[in-house]
UniProtKB/TrEMBL annotation:
<dbReference type="InterPro" id="IPR023401">
    <property type="entry name" value="ODC_N"/>
</dbReference>
<dbReference type="GO" id="GO:0019752">
    <property type="term" value="P:carboxylic acid metabolic process"/>
</dbReference>
<dbReference type="InterPro" id="IPR036291">
    <property type="entry name" value="NAD(P)-bd_dom_sf"/>
</dbReference>
<dbReference type="GO" id="GO:0005737">
    <property type="term" value="C:cytoplasm"/>
</dbReference>
<comment type="similarity">
    <text>Belongs to the ornithine cyclodeaminase/mu-crystallin family.</text>
</comment>
<dbReference type="Pfam" id="PF02423">
    <property type="entry name" value="OCD_Mu_crystall"/>
</dbReference>
<dbReference type="GO" id="GO:0016491">
    <property type="term" value="F:oxidoreductase activity"/>
</dbReference>
<dbReference type="InterPro" id="IPR003462">
    <property type="entry name" value="ODC_Mu_crystall"/>
</dbReference>
<protein>
    <submittedName>
        <fullName>Ornithine cyclodeaminase</fullName>
    </submittedName>
</protein>
Amino acid sequence: MTTVILTQREIRQLLPMTECIEQMAEVLTALARDEATSPLRWGMRLAGGAILGMMPATLHSRRALGLKIVAVFPHNHGTPFDSHQGLVTLFDAETGAPRAILDATEVTAIRTAAVSAVATRVLAREAADDLAILGAGTQAWTHLEAMLCVRPVRRVRVFSATPANREAFARQAEQRFAVEVRAVDSARAAVEGASLVCTTTSAREPVLLGDWLAPGTHVNAVGACVPSARELDARAVARARLYVDRCESALAESGDFLLARAEGVVDDAHILGELGELLCGACEGRRSDDDVTLFKSLGLGIEDVAVAHYLHGRALATGVGVQVELGGRRRLGE
């Protein structure tokens, strides 16, 4: 059986952000309707704070079955390598044979920002146009692109703890996206007055304080994905109407929520619903222009599998990628 292999460059070619946003809206809706299975990820901790994780999932309506294997190496920050390395593998739903092998770094970069765009589309004010980005790495780039797809962003302020990184991001992003992008010297200077905030850092302690948030702000919190790390302080979580990609994941993995709960400022009922439930109309979203809304993203295996299924079809239709013969066959006579 033929297996398609796609590189980072080929994935970027086949998966425009606008299309990925629509794909993520569809798959999260399917998940909310029990048309998909996406169990908690499993991770093995390695020396130096690294994690090797596995994220299986299946999307029943598309007969899509897959697995992401991801190696998270935080100390890659500042090197040529992204902190998230790995593969997404798509399997044939009838035989289990591998159908596609994809670079997980690019899949993760695009689909994570696309999910934040879905959340922004259903939670942020229509006129939200002032964007703050905390962090200047891969997710900062894809989140800027994603926010421009769903809101009329006219000004961007970016903060990174490394001055050279935030200056380079601002200069290059302004040229690439034809929007005003300014590097600022503190997280507070980026956030105050913003109507949209994306936190895309590797921080383990809060970089966003609730007292900085203006009424009506929408926040996409992306960076922290383990119980011991958070980007938001307890005040930011408590002030906001909180939505998650998956309640099970948030209760097991989200340091932003779990540490605020441990401090006694929120309880489990503070999670108002999942993003897919919002899309289905099963829970209430923003109630007024003054509401602060928060989407806590952890990332789900079903998002990766849906992207892999889409890219497999696009690769076969366009001839992009390398095709190899994989799929174990029984050896005759044994």
